Amino acid sequence: MTRLQGKTALVTGAAMGIGYAVAERFIAEGARVVLADRNAAAVAEAAGALGPLARAATMDISDEAAVAAAFAELEAAGWTPDVVVANAGVQLFGHDAPAADLDLDVWRRTIDINLTGTFLTVKYAVRALLSRGGGSIILTGSPTAVNGEGRDFTAYSASKAGVHGLGRTVAAAYADRGIRVNTVQPAYTETPLVAAITDDPDSRAAIVSRIPIGRAGTPADVTGIMVYLASDEGSFATGATFSVDGGMTTL
Ligand SMILES: NC(=O)c1ccc[n+]([C@@H]2O[C@H](COP(=O)([O-])OP(=O)(O)OC[C@H]3O[C@@H](n4cnc5c(N)ncnc54)[C@H](O)[C@@H]3O)[C@@H](O)[C@H]2O)c1
User: Fold this and answer.
1) What's the topology of domain 8-186+225-242?
2) Which residues line ligand 1 (CB under 6 A)?
3) Residues catalogued as catalytic
4) Per-residue pLDDT band at 1 (split at 50, 70, 90)
5) Which atom of ligand 1 is nearest to 114's Cα?
6) Domain-by-domain residue ranges, the chain?
7) At 181, is the pLDDT very low, low, confident or very high (cuts 50, 70, 90)?
8) Can you give the pLDDT at residue 147?
9) 16 — alpha (psi -120 to 50), left (phi > 0) or beta?
10) Is 104 buried (19+), middle (13-18) or exposed (0-12) by CB count in 10 A?
11) Which tens digit of pLDDT belongs to each residue from 116-161?
12) What is the distance in A from the centroid of ligand 1 to the CA of 86?
């Protein structure tokens, strides 16, 4: 499996969950991968587990200085990426809420990471990709951006709607310079992010009942589309959203 031979990828939020699975799969496909995360210890351990084709970078995507410094360090080390997966995100269970009950602080914390942080990742990714003559940017979206699935998570859902819009805008702006931008939209995928659902049998049964295929997603379910979009096989795909949701958005 060498569909990503010769590529250097950067994946944010790669210490665990979907980001880690994507990093692991990209390496299996022959890429070098920078695992970036704000959790320094966890990302160092994660990169260590993946061997010499993996490299750790500590960066909080909501901090522009940290993002700029991480990209500069990669350039100096000869690891400028030509594939960037802007995947890091948070969902503040127990705090995010329907609009009338949502604290401004919770809204701001969510938007700061999920939307502003994705923008900052994309900003420096575009600069890096331009220096490499083009490449692929993949954003992690959510069905909550497009339907009522996230009705109790106003901040999260709005932040993801912003991510979907950002992807289309940046795709249009840079298509003629060899940069493709696409959004992958997983549904309920069992990772540490959604432990509040996974660990509660009633909540878990309720969400699985809204997935026509009849099971929860796994991080591995999301990696195949990421490989396609990162590789040259996806060279005519840009500005699009790819659902991997067991049919959840058909309901
Ligand atoms: N799990 C799901 O059901 C699901 C569904 C749809 C979309 N998503 C999206 O997929 C992406 C990955 O989610 P996951 O389920 O793997 O989550 P996760 O919580 O398992 O992992 C997220 C990782 O992102 C890191 N992170 C959080 N904030 C960060 C920041 N400011 N800077 C850098 N790193 C940061 C965390 O440290 C963690 O390692 C997120 O954007 C999430 O919104 C998840």
Assistant:
1) Rossmann fold (3.40.50)
2) 12-13, 15-19, 37-39, 60-62, 87-91, 113, 117, 140, 142, 186, 188-189, 191-194
3) 156
4) confident
5) 41
6) 8-186+225-242
7) very high
8) 87
9) beta
10) exposed
11) 999 999 999 999 999 999 999 999 999 999 888 889 999 999 999 9
12) 10
